[in-house]
Amino acid sequence: MRKVIHAATGILACCAALLLGFLFYMNSNLPDKYMVSEGGIFSIPAKAEITATVEQTKSSRQVLTQSGNIYQAQLKLFGVVPLKQVTVEVVEKQMVAACGNPFGIKMFTEGVMVVGLSDMDTESGSVNPARNAGIKIGDVVMRIDGKEVYSNEQVGEIVEASGGKPLKISLKRKNEPMTVTLTPCKSTVDGGYKAGMWVRDSSAGIGTMTFYDPVSGVFGGLGHAVCDVDTGEILPLMSGEAVQVTITGCIKGECGAPGELQGNFYQNGKMGNLYLNTETGIYGTLNNKITPPVLMPIAFRQEVKAAPATILTTLNGSTPQEYDILIEKVNFGDNNPTKNMVIRITDPELLAKTGGIVQGMSGSPILQDGKLIGAVTHVFVNDPTRGFGIFAENMYYSIDNVENAMSAAS
């Protein structure tokens, strides 16, 4: 009998540990804040096992439905087990035009980014002035001796003109300002003064436009930042242009070798300005409004389901087409704002032409139940039929910062 009791106790303890572990997992993977449209009722339709309870009174009904208000809701598992209390914000329903058309990106950085450090031969031997000064790859040089720098050539000219005298370098490292002193050295190769670092001042490429907001005139694209190819760091945007582009072909993706859309930039084809390069995408304004825009609502994260969906993307010319995909997994947490969904291409035509997701398709809108739910962001290198997607909600609410960036640029 005692053995039976011990066995039962052990089983119950294991069950309790599993339950607590499951509840912890559920709690940590549910965000602390949600949004709901004006007049709507908060729920999580994508997770039927989770219910939301809100205490309603006559005085609270207006709070629950009027834009601009915030209230608390209790999430429960199967309506019984409490999970967590969350904040719900009531917002206006946002309508945008889902795009899917390609655009060219031309951007110049704020300052210059250090992308490499190189030793140089001097009369004293092999040295690296930049490394000796404490400069690291990924640092962004903002000013040299108080003078703002914008180009590779400008940095080279200042270093050469120093004649070997110490230079005060103002830079940013992970957005944190700092100052170092760099003493250029004279090269025995060409007799010039060098800093021992390679810097980059610009970038160009092709991406896909995700949405256009007809009210603000702002568009969002890519679904991830434009990063330096050598360092992986987000390039700080000083100024940039969105230009017209025509897709001319595609290098098909294979396991271990991502494919790529190929295209041509239009000469004198500027279509707008770029103002933000952020973790969730690149944002700007268009010179001409999209007319007439076919509008659809932005989905909130809790509305996104692991179910069939479609994407809008362009494989030839400049006209997007709709293709079938499957959303395999949805991550509601805030731990990674650009990898909210795992998607798989299921459309036979798209698979035949591209092999799946290829470079240049980043930003392709994801549609489900008549709503813009997100955008394609990354491809799985070892399986080009699958990749990540970002919630449209994460992209859309970044456009509030565009007006600030426009004011700063004017």
Q: What is the CATH class designation of the largest domain?
A: Mainly Beta
Share in β-strands:
over 45%
What percent of the residues sit in helical stretches (DSSP H or I)? 10-25%
Uncertain regions: pLDDT < 50 for 5+ in a row?
none
Compute the CA-based radius of gyration: 26 Å
How many domains? 3
Helix vs. strand class: alpha+beta
Strands, count: 26
Distance between the termini: 83 Å
Question: Biggest β-sheet, characterized?
Answer: 6 strands, antiparallel, barrel
Provide a count of the helices. Answer: 7
CATH topology of the largest domain, which one? Answer: Thrombin, subunit H
So what's the overall shape? globular
Q: What is the level-2 CATH architecture name of the largest domain?
A: Beta Barrel
Average pLDDT, all residues? 87
Describe this structure in words.
The protein is an alpha+beta fold and 410 residues long. It has helices spanning 2-28, 61-65, 129-132, 152-161, 348-354, 392-396, 400-409, and strands at residues 33-37, 50-53, 70-77, 81-91, 95-98, 102-117, 120-122, 125-127, 140-144, 147-148, 167-173, 176-182, 185-186, 193-194, 197-213, 218-221, 237-251, 260-278, 281-286, 295-297, 308-313, 321-330, 341-345, 365-368, 371-380, 383-391. The strands form 5 sheets. A 6-stranded antiparallel beta barrel has the order 6-15-16-19-18-17. A 6-stranded antiparallel β-barrel has the order 21-22-23-26-25-24. Strands 1-4-3-2 form a 4-stranded mixed β-sheet. 36% of the residues are buried.
